[in-house]
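Weekly modeling sync, notes
Attendees: S.R. (lead), two postdocs, one rotation student

Agenda item 3: backlog of single-chain predictions. S.R. asked that every request posted to the team notebook include the full sequence so nobody has to chase files. The rotation student volunteered to paste the first one in as an example of the format we agreed on. Action items at the bottom.

Example entry:
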Amino acid sequence: MAPKGKRASQLRQQLISAGLEELDQHGFEDFSIRRIAKTCGVSCSAPYKHFENKQDFIIQIFSYINEIYHERQNKTIARYAHCSTRQQILEVSLDYVRFLAEYPHFRRIIMQNYQNFDEKYRLLRGQLSVATYDLVSRYCAEVNMPDSVRRWKTFIMRSIIYGAALFFDNKEMEFNEENLQIVRSLLDREFDLSWQYTETVPPVTEESCETA
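Predicted structure, as returned to the notebook:
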């Protein structure tokens, strides 16, 4: 059982913060709990009072990222609850770009893929996408968009989101409101493009179309 109390909670948060940096710098394969313990100034056994093992530690890091984003996402959804489904999708998507640009280490961690992790890890990654997926599904039902088209357009919008965040992170685009509105216009434009061109492209799987 994990230790309780204010000091234990503070140490757990310190370990997660150091774990985020560790995961960003070294990835899944070279993730070192010993290095994290040294960074936090605690014994090598101390992290195991909070996390069962390396996999559990990384899962808790993803849970932390989810908590931060979901709190932000819920505020965005509430702010635009009175708007059309299409506008809600745009605002949630654009705020996700902001989130990834403001926390570039989160984006780098989210984009990593470690196949040896169990279903719990994959579910946690997918949780970032649940609310947006529900909005996209609702919009598609409203406009009678075929499922194959929905998958393709979601794939394109996801590419725009992560591509923009990468450009901001690499300083290829300045992270400012003007450029964010360019990203917004690209996302918005995708709704209006003809569905016909999707008949000539390869099929896109559900897994590749997860969006957040």
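Discussion: group reviewed the output briefly. The chain has a mean pLDDT of 85.
Action items: rotation student to repeat for the remaining queue; S.R. to check formatting next week.
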